[in-house]
Amino acid sequence: IRRAVIRGTGHYLPERVVENSWFEGKVDTNDEWIRSRTGIERRHFAAEGQMTSDLGIRAARAALDDAGMSADDIDAIVLATSTPDLTFPAVATMVQAGLGMTRGFAFDVQAVCAGFVFALANAEGLIRTEQAERVLVIGAETFSRILDWDDRSTSVLFGDGAGAVVLEAAEGQGTSDDRGILASDLNSDGQYRDLLYVDGGVSSTGTAGQLKMQGNLVFRHAVEKLAKTAHTALDKAGLTAEQVDWLVPHQANARIISATAQKMGLPMEKVVLTVSDHGNTSAASIPLALSVAAAEGRFKPGDVIVTEAIGGGLSWGSVVLRW
Ligand code: ACO
């Protein structure tokens, strides 16, 4: 059967690094609170005029370099974001143009923090159904543009950045020993809209709006739903948690990540943790973590990697792959 194998990873983080202490004069908070409640120490913020597509293009170029490919080799771009440059066209088409690609196709996926997991599952579908041989899958966000700087309970949590992977079709045996994406599990439940949303948009206010979150409620859903979706995806792949080499979770909060790992029976040595340096970069956090860990040489060929994420919607899911 046709599998979708990761051939390269790359990422880009804006130059400007903002430490927790930066927020101390702006809202009633402190470095110790942010660190102990979230695990976040610093985040990157895009410069004025630097857009989601700019971050995406840089991450895409890095992933292509890593794969030893050029833009001409790519048939499709699937980009996950909730912070597009414009209402339309899709940021993916802006990345396409930025890479100098005039063939193939490109579109965005919107599932907030779960966006990269949804994009990866969709890209695998394109490869399986022979609509593409090679797909660039990107998560790119500029959440700094939708933060309420007067709200200490949300403004300290998010960062900007982009990550990308190159997927390529490869023949597999149809067993859990194959390299590539082995299984996915996607979920949404729109009745939880008010737990995490942006209070503006094209057809409502005509403005971009600001992020609103009931963090403690999202926290509870996260811990319960993330371990469950990861187990479901593992089950579909014919694998168990004991066979997992790496958990590469959405990086929202170190406490959610460690609680999920614990529920899955995974020691923290098997968890890729980047939230301290990146904050929550929404759809970019998983490809960023994949790219950072891959660059450090942490993944060996054949390793089983579980990605999982939850975000606005609520939407949540997991993709299991063999490196
Ligand atoms: N500094 C100091 N105090 C703060 C801050 C801050 N930055 N933020 C909140 N507090 C206060 C609150 O006001 C509250 O004070 P009170 O008791 O006087 O009312 C107290 O800290 C406790 O607040 P909680 O919200 O209960 O704190 P909690 O331990 O739950 O941590 C947090 C808050 C970090 C937001 C946590 O709930 C969380 O991480 N939630 C999940 C976030 C998440 O995963 N989002 C999903 C993905 S994001 C996406 O899809 C875009």
Automatic annotation (TrEMBL):
- Tell where it localizes: Cytoplasm
Q: Which residues form the Beta-ketoacyl-[acyl-carrier-protein] synthase III N-terminal domain?
A: 107-190
Pathway named in the protein's UniProt entry: Lipid metabolism; fatty acid biosynthesis
User: Which InterPro entries does this chain map to?
Assistant: ACP_syn_III_C, ACP_syn_III_N, FabH, Thiolase-like
Superkingdom, taxonomy of origin? Bacteria
Reply yes or no: does the keyword tRNA-binding apply: no
Kindly report, in one word, the top-level EC class recorded for this enzyme: transferase
* UniProt entry keywords in alphabetical sequence: Acyltransferase, Cytoplasm, Fatty acid biosynthesis, Fatty acid metabolism, Lipid biosynthesis, Lipid metabolism, Multifunctional enzyme, Transferase
Q: Name one GO molecular function term.
A: beta-ketoacyl-acyl-carrier-protein synthase III activity
Gene Ontology terms, cellular component aspect? Answer: cytoplasm
Q: Does the keyword Acyltransferase apply?
A: yes
Domain (Beta-ketoacyl-[acyl-carrier-protein] synthase III C-terminal) ranges:
234-323
Q: What is its main location?
A: cytoplasm
- Known EC number: 2.3.1.180
Function summary: Catalyzes the condensation reaction of fatty acid synthesis by the addition to an acyl acceptor of two carbons from malonyl-ACP. Catalyzes the first condensation reaction which initiates fatty acid synthesis and may therefore play a role in governing the total rate of fatty acid production. Possesses both acetoacetyl-ACP synthase and acetyl transacylase activities. Its substrate specificity determines the biosynthesis of branched-chain and/or straight-chain of fatty acids.
- SUBUNIT field: Homodimer.
Q: What's the name of the protein? A: Beta-ketoacyl-[acyl-carrier-protein] synthase III
Please report the organism this UniProt entry assigns to the protein: Paracoccus tegillarcae
